Amino acid sequence: MRIWAQGMTRQDQSVEEGGEAYQAGRDLTVNHGMNADEMAALMVAMAKQLSAFTDEANAKLNQRFDEFRDEVLKQFSNETTSRKEAFNDPDFQFTVKSAQEAYARKGDGDLKVELVRLLAERSKQHSGSRVANILNEAIKVAGSLTKQEMAVLAIIFVMIHVGTPTQNSIQTRAFHESILAPFLSDMPNDRNSFEYLESLRCITINAIVTRTSETILSEKFKNQFQNGESGAVIKSFMETSPVLKAVYGAWDANQVFQQSYLTSLGKALAHSTLVSKTGLNAPVEIWIS
């Protein structure tokens, strides 16, 4: 109900008990809220708007389901990278559904590639095995990670767990540059991504033990530098690559990098994104079993 009071020249009023008094030197509008008819009309309008939003959301969902299906069919047409027979397995079917839902919620192209890659890897494992269970969990978690978290996992994986296929120092530098370059722009410079990954059981953070890049390199590449070079010399050589210099610098500047250890779940996710983005050609069972 609205009350309009015309402007008055006098402000004298007499109010009975329980009454309301309003004064103004000009026009006054008093809003006592909507009546029943107005509220009903508003609710009908809102319901129509929500219905329109629902129709739009459903259209997006259907489009994303189609996109995901097409990517899966493309991946599983290659018998060397996946196993079609897995679709007969109930556990794998549940995992496919989980991957579909993760992509449908976000619609991110990189996530779609990652989920399909993980499904292909999962299809080659027997349901109930430890590796299959880890990959099932990786597919569930992948949809909750940003590019920063995936970069953290990949960098730790390469720094700690990936060696080199050559005994030549120059080729070693080129190899590590090639597999770290795709993650350079997404490296975080704070603790947030690490703490989030720890909450998802992808990493553990050990505040007592730290590993500088020099310490890691002196151990990792001792066979590629056979003249007794120190860690500082090895690092200096590797850092002639701008990519590696940036990665090592970020590693040493952010102490939580040095304190982080990948769990089996973190290794599975890191391995998958490295295969997707760099073409790393090594089975995940090397690192998880």
Question: What features would you highlight for this structure?
Answer:
two-stranded antiparallel sheet; 289 residues; two-stranded antiparallel ribbon; 2 domains
What is the count of β-strands? 4
The end-to-end distance, rounded to whole angstroms, is: 72 Å
| Shape, principal axes of CA atoms | globular
Output the helix-strand order. EEHHHHHHHEHHHHEH
Name the structural class. mainly alpha
Main beta sheet, described? 2 strands, antiparallel
Low-confidence stretches: 1-8
Using only CA atoms, what is the Rg?
A: 30 Å
Neighbour order of strands in the largest sheet: 1-2
- Helical content stands at 55-70%
DSSP helix count? 12
Strand residue percentage: under 5%
Total number of domains: 2
**Average pLDDT level:** 85
Please describe what this structure looks like.
The chain contains 12 helices and 4 strands; from the N terminus they run ββαααααααβααααβα. It has 289 residues and is mainly alpha-helical. The protein folds into 2 domains: 69 residues, no CATH class; 140 residues, no CATH class. The strands form 2 sheets. A two-stranded antiparallel ribbon has the order 1-2. The protein has a two-stranded antiparallel ribbon with strand order 3-4. Helix 2 packs antiparallel against helix 3, helix 2 runs parallel beside helix 4 and helix 5 crosses helix 12. It starts with a strand and ends in an 11-residue tail after the last helix.
Summarize the structure.
This protein is mostly helical and 289 residues long.
